[in-house]
Amino acid sequence: MVKLTKLSWKLAFQYALVFAAVLIALNASVLYGVKFFLIYQAEQKVDSVSRAVEQRIIGPNSEQMTLGDPELINEAKSDNTLNIKVAGPSGKIVNGSANFNTLSVPMIDNINTARKIEGRGLNLVIKNTAVIDGGKVRAYVQVSQNMEKEYTFLKILLILLAIADTFGILFSLFAGYLLSRKMLRPIDKMTKAANAIGLSGLSARIEVPPADDELSRLAKTFNEMLDRIKIVFEKQGRFVADASHELRTPVSIIQGYIGIMDRWGKQDEKVLQESIDAIKKETLSMTIMIKKLLFLARGDNGSQVLQKATFSIDELMEEVSLESSMLASGHHFSFQGSPGLELFADRRMIKQMLRALLNNSIKFTPKGGRVTLLYTGNENNIVFSILDTGIGIPEEEQVQIFERFYRVDKARARETGGSGLGLSIVKWIVDVHEGEISIVSSVENGTSVAVTLPKLLELQL
Ligand SMILES: Nc1ncnc2c1ncn2[C@@H]1O[C@H](COP(=O)(O)OP(=O)(O)O)[C@@H](O)[C@H]1O
Ligand SMILES: [Mg+2]
After folding, report:
1. Which of 204, 180, 178 is nearest to 192 (CA)?
2. Does 407 contact ligand 1 (Cβ within 6 A)?
3. 210 falls in which pLDDT band (50, 70, 90)?
4. What is the pTM of this model?
5. What is the CATH number of the domain that holds 238?
6. Structural domain containing residue 434
7. 187 within a domain of the structure (yes/no)
8. What is the pLDDT of residues 236-245, one digit of tens each?
């Protein structure tokens, strides 16, 4: 909440700053423009009055006036912001009005240009003219316009604009704050909702603002992230529950046999041996299951390290088939493939994968059946195929068998001795090697599993 307030203030300040800069620039240009216009007007006026006075001095004979004629400076009589002075050729002032003081401005100076004089108590636009007739200077005329009023007007304008600006900036600050607070309110809501999520489990969701903007997208993304987290969380929970459940069975069997030994085993050697064998078997299967669980857990949290290297497929096949043919007593076991293939992968894991697949085929194929391992390759891939003539997998369960602890026939599961983790591990290994696995199977006829792995030999360079 504190952060949010700060952010809206920050935004408001920035808006106000930009607004103030624009306002000040605008007002400065207005003031400058008005001033320019007023001076220009005064110059025009001074110009035309000068010309009128000049006309009266050197105009057509019938209209000529003497330099001392009071009519000569008519304009200054009706307009007290205007001053006219007339001097003879020697520069001596012979006629003039005294609407305001222009004594200090010399008359024979800057002839013929209207100019602005500021300072020393004067604000004037002034023009000196030399009246020339027949090549001789007849007189000097000085016309000046008092700009005092205009300057006062400009000053008042400046003060008014400054006051308006101050209010404008304060208002923009305030309005900006309120607006950004309103805009940022969804963030506040999101923060509260996100805070509540831990408390109410993972099912709470953030309300998505109706407008399709950045905030609604953030809310949507956040909700989608929660969906994903929830799925992973539930999967993890189910995994733990399943694992505990699976481990409970061997533990209770072991407890049962310990009870038997306690009661009868001390006298009866046969019962004792039977119990020890059973406990051995259960502990072994538990150890294997825990190993598999650890493998998967390491895979889940990313701590499973792959040790990739290039190795010969032929050698690997020798090893695998030797082990498997020992297990497959009573099955027709065969393996064949193209010689000379190489693969860049974690050899241990590839072996583990093939072993798990072959073990399944052996386990789910009745004695006398056929189990075959084929391997081929092209420049990109290596394909392992494991074929059997076993009991097969019903079509609708061919996807599920890759799930952890999933077994088609739960009742027979203890008999076959599996935990339902084998194919999950196989899938993980295929995935980290960026390969693909596919199953073709029909009940009673048998199963064939194909694993395609990219060779990736160039990666070693
Ligand atoms: N080759 C196969 N023939 C028939 N069923 C199979 C075969 N491979 C796997 N299955 C089915 O898929 C299930 C899961 O296999 P897996 O994950 O290796 O577990 P497990 O071997 O421990 O039972 C097996 O229980 C079995 O029902
Ligand atoms: Mg298995």
Report:
1. 204
2. yes
3. confident
4. 0.64
5. 1.10.287.130
6. 308-460
7. no
8. 888 899 899 8
